[in-house]
Amino acid sequence: MHYTFDIERGNFADAGQASSSVKRTLKHLGVDPANIKRTVVALFEAEINAIAHAYGGKIDVDIDDGKIVMVVADQGPGIPDLDLAMQEGWSTASPQVREMGYGAGMGLPNIKKNTDELKIDTKVGVGTTVTMTVYFT
Amino acid sequence: MAERETYFRHSLKVNFDRCQGCTTCMRSCPTGAIRIRGGKAVVNDNKCVDCGQCMKVCPHKAIFIQQDDFDLIRNYGYRVALVPATFIGQFDEQYRTKEIYACLKKLGFTHIYEVEHEVGYMIDLYNRYMEAHPETRTFISPYCPAVIRLIQVRFPSLVDNVIHVRAPFELAARIIIRRLMDEGAPREQVGVFYITPCAAKIAAVKYPVSKKETCIAGVINMDFLYNKVQLMLHDSDKAAQPVNHALTSSDVLWPLAGGEACHFKGSQYAVDGLQNVLNFLEKLEDEAVDAEGLVEMRICDQGCVGGVLATNNRFVARKRLEHRAKTFDSQGRTKTRYRRYDDPEFCAWINEQMEIPEIKPRSIYKLDDNFAEAFRMAERMKKIEKALPGVNCSACGAPSCAALAEDIVRGDAKMDTCIFINRHSQASENAIRSIWGDRVRTKEINNDDTNNL
Questions:
Q1: Interface contact B382-A1, CB threshold 8 A
Q2: CA gap A107, A101 in Å, rounded
Q3: What's the mean pLDDT in A50-68?
Q4: What residues contact B199, with CB distance under 8 A and at least 6 apart?
Q5: Which CATH number does the domain housing residue A49 bear?
Q6: N or C: less crowded end of chain B, CB within 10 Å?
């Protein structure tokens, strides 16, 4: 099953639509609540990351009988130092974003913690593609 | 509909003589428990959480709460009215609580006991549970039975966040029975009757999540007693004796939104109102909010004063209870703790009685136990939903096109029932007839007729 969602830069009010929709489907499938939680937390974090940092993008979700693959692809600006970005507490979020309660530097580490596979392709000036996989069994 | 095991039962009923099948309740139900069949609202027992929303919105007063026969109290020598403070909030402040209670006694009760009298020990029970579960960050209050059921069916991943302690009226009932037995009453002669502000609390007495026995002999609807007492208050007994066990100011505020959370260290949230509760549970499930400690949750707006059986406006009732709390403060009320609370054996017994052993997840979403089959059904559901018009007209007897799509894959409805999909076939005619019964008019109306309507 395939789902697509658009991400609009800076639109925090609409954040969570992708994770809500995916959560509903996983509940229909009877996926274990702990795995639903991991999936939804990771997807929500990735969505927030793209809203806060990127110039817009899209989310592609594929569910098959054993796993879910979520691809969050944006159109830049890209991450200059990925190793730094993966560190807990490291953040380049603007003061405005921090005021909204985001930007604590826990996004990528939290995604890593909640997914079984995480792949990040990034190029400054081009964009970032985050591919997350969660296995249900 | 397909046969399934029923694990929830309810006191909310539909009066088919009054129901017009108008779809208002069906569209407002938070769990999608209602469908129109045969022209009437039909409730799926496993989806209903007793929130009372359907009863609140029904324009035909067709939904009611089945209560116990009031004459049941005559079977007991000691007839206790177990009164929540919400009941007192229904009456104007000019009437003293003892006058209100005197009316209840005239109606046949021999003793009055207030649910909130045991607030202190309830707080101990919550704290004890939270201390015993240091691995849990967010605890959800078990106070509102509709919230517990809602979590079971819609947010099953949160069942372990609920404090596994039974509702306060179960504690109060046990304590008053013990107090009366201390005074020499035989157990079988004590009948405790709980005055309920809502359907959820009746369900919690009659069909508890804990599966444990209740010691409450019957449940009486608050609006029923309100009407009787209000009539009697005009010539009430100003010289009535106060009841033995009086509430303090913080007790009397406990049923109001925020009245519970304020007792707990570090508690940051008090959430009231159906839509707010749904939104907040969604956020907790996504970890989009970080709530440490106790989260108070009440399905009704403003808490229990917003209950469907509370007669008066919730804001008026809230103001009245706050006013009474101030009066109690100025009287410098204090309570004497029930002496048996100092007896460890008694406390061990009470703690065991008040424990909920398990809150089972009862997901209403799961399409099939077999993942591959559920997957196939979910795929089909997505396709059907795309084919449906998306106007959510409810003519199919389901609250939305999405709900119809789910009904179809579950085998509870057919594609034909959508009047947009199948406008002119006999199959469509038959399907619509099975949903709407006699309300489907067969008379052809031509243009001339419509001009005369």
A1: yes
A2: 12
A3: 89
A4: B10, B11, B12, B50, B51, B52, B55, B65, B146, B308, B309
A5: 3.30.565.10
A6: C
Contacts of A40 in chain B (CB under 8 A): 285-286
Quote the ipTM score. Answer: 0.80
Q: What is the pLDDT of residue B445?
A: 47
- Boundaries of domain holding A78: 2-135
Question: B337 to each of B213, B245, B247, how far by Cα in Å?
Answer: 26, 10, 12
CB contact under 8 A, A20 and B282: yes
Distance CA B120, CA B264 (A): 12
- Gyration radius of chain A over CA positions: 14
Pairing, β A57-63 against β A67-74: antiparallel
Instruction: Write phi, then psi, for A122 (nearest 5 degrees).
Output: -140, 145
Nearest CA in chain A to B382: A1
Token couple for B439: 């309300």
Residue ranges with strand state E in A21-126: 57-63, 67-74, 117-123
In chain A, the number of structural domains is 1
Per-residue CA distances from B80 to B66, B191, B199, B238 (Å): 20, 6, 21, 22
User: Domains of chain B: which residue ranges?
Assistant: 1-64, 70-354
| CB contact A41 to B (< 8 Å) | yes
Name the stretches of chain B with pLDDT < 70: 1-4, 244-245, 423-424, 439-453
Q: pTM score, two decimals?
A: 0.88
Angle at A127 between CA A121 and CA A129, to 5 degrees: 40
For residue B436, the cross-strand partners are none
How many CB atoms within 10 Å of residue A59?
24
